[in-house]
Write a structure and sequence with these properties.
458 residues, 3 domains, five-stranded antiparallel beta sheet, three-stranded antiparallel beta sheet, flat
Length: 458
């Protein structure tokens, strides 16, 4: 399979041509016989050391590689188009590791001829300095035929995949006949989810699962999403349903969340809920079930008070505490979900408050002022040591001085982090207080509804 990419070059034209035509990359002189054999067992001429030193893989389409820069500039001067994008630099990489450089160069030349050969000058080189052979293309931005610049389909690299696949198919190389148009996640989000960290994708999945579990039709599903604070597009005429993650403006297609979240899969899950009805018993209950509210860890945290208690209570509401109990983030209040992605910063702030027993804003400001004064003292000490290191000292004294400088630098890093955390605590505590007030008020309303329903059932 050939992977293609193209990007514009606005600076030195000579630099990019020299890079693509670099003998260190296009020649095989840097490969030992063993390395070259590992790269491609079929290269029989790798045994001939004199021959491999002379082999270069650099050719031109509508131009001479040796004088490519001058020929590019001549065409630009001819049509008076010296400004803007000077050239386009692209590459084609092959999945196979047993492909010969000759075949890679031949495919690269054919690809360049089909895509740009009718109107543009192209330098085509094959680089052998990586695990996978790859061709580089340097395309003049101005056409030698009519003076028009490279535009539209001629520079949309994702359209080249079809041509690259056709050529690979002709030469018996691997290609994907049915490529996936969109992956469920990129690598960054995959790694975060693998490490157990919440992402906007994982939060969306949990919210959709929560909404589906309470719904038996698409209308109910939409209402549940409304309660959770999500914006959505679930129109039957749309090919892909979309939901906007909380804290973001751009919608995400539900099919990107996985096979279990496509339009058809969601409808199927809703139908399953509809047919799995629970029937009430004919005989009414005679035993009165009474509910007793026991004290929880939340009540103990509330009694602590101060900044430290405020942060602990917030962590409890976020589901981070207690650690042995994993909370479903889809059930969180919509005001709390944004801070799930900031748990690392919040936990660092909690540790600072707990380790230094900071309860009030005055104590926080006092701690911050002490840290700033210590930073000033250590900075002046480090300046003196740096002046001392510039004098004529013995090797032992110089190494000792440098070690002291390194130790002070490490201390300064830690102190500056603590000062930043103090600033963050001062700012975040206000939003935490307002969020918690709103969350508790909404919970009281919900508890009132629960009590009414319970009394009616009794």
């Amino acid at each position: 399979m050939a992977v293609t990419k193209l990007w514009s070059v606005t600076h030195s034209l000579k630099h990019v041509i020299d890079y693509a035509n670099d003998p260190e990359k296009t020649s095989m002189k840097n490969f030992s016989e063993e390395q070259y054999q590992a790269l491609a067992d079929v290269l029989t001429y790798a045994k001939d050391e004199e021959k491999t030193e002379k082999v270069f893989y650099a050719q031109g389409v509508n131009c001479n590689v040796t004088y490519a820069r001058d020929e590019f500039v001549y065409v630009k001067d001819l049509y008076n188009k010296q400004g803007g994008v000077q050239a386009y630099h692209g590459y084609m990489s092959f999945k196979e590791q047993n492909i010969t450089p000759e075949l890679a160069q031949k495919i690269g030349m054919e690809f360049a001829q089909r895509v740009w050969g009718k109107r543009f000058q192209v330098v085509v080189t094959t680089h052998l300095n990586t695990r996978h052979l790859h061709c580089h293309f340097v395309i003049n931005s101005v056409s030698f035929v009519d003076g028009y610049k490279l535009q539209n389909n001629e520079k949309l690299w994702y359209r080249f995949r079809h041509i690259a696949d056709e050529i690979c198919k002709e030469y018996g190389l691997y290609y994907d006949p049915k490529p996936e148009l969109g992956k469920t996640n990129n690598y960054h989000y995959y790694q975060l989810e693998k490490a157990g960290m919440p992402t906007r994708y994982s939060q969306l999945r949990e919210a959709i699962d929560e909404a589906i579990s309470k719904s038996k039709s698409k209308t109910q599903f939409a209402k549940e999403l409304d309660k959770l604070g999500y914006k959505y597009q679930l129109d039957d005429n749309r090919k892909y349903w979309t939901i906007v993650p909380l804290g973001f403006n751009k919608p995400i297609r539900l099919k990107r969340l996985g096979d279990n979240y496509t339009n058809e899969a969601i409808i199927k899950r809703l139908y399953e809920n509809y047919y799995n009805r629970r029937f009430k018993p004919f005989q009414p209950r005679t035993v009165v079930i009474r509910q007793y509210r026991l004290q929880t860890r939340e009540h103990k945290i509330k009694k602590m008070g101060g900044l430290y208690g405020l942060y602990l209570h917030y962590c409890y509401k976020l589901g981070y505490l207690p650690k042995y109990k994993k909370q479903n983030s889809a059930r969180l209040h919509y005001l709390l979900r944004d801070d799930l992605l900031k748990l690392d910063k919040i936990t660092a702030e909690v540790r600072l408050l707990g380790s230094n027993k900071i309860q009030t804003e005055e104590q926080l400001l006092t701690y911050k002022d002490k840290a700033i004064k210590k930073i000033e003292t250590l900075t002046s000490d480090r300046t003196e040591l740096r002046k001392k290191s510039r004098r004529k000292l013995s090797d032992e004294e110089l190494s000792k001085t440098k070690e002291e400088i390194y130790q002070i630098t490490d201390k300064l890093k830690e102190l500056r982090k603590k000062v930043k955390l103090c600033d963050s605590i001062e700012e975040r505590s206000k939003s935490i207080h307002s969020n918690l007030s709103q969350v508790l008020a909404d919970e009281d309303k919900f508890k009132g509804k629960e009590t009414k329903i319970y009394e009616q059932q009794r």
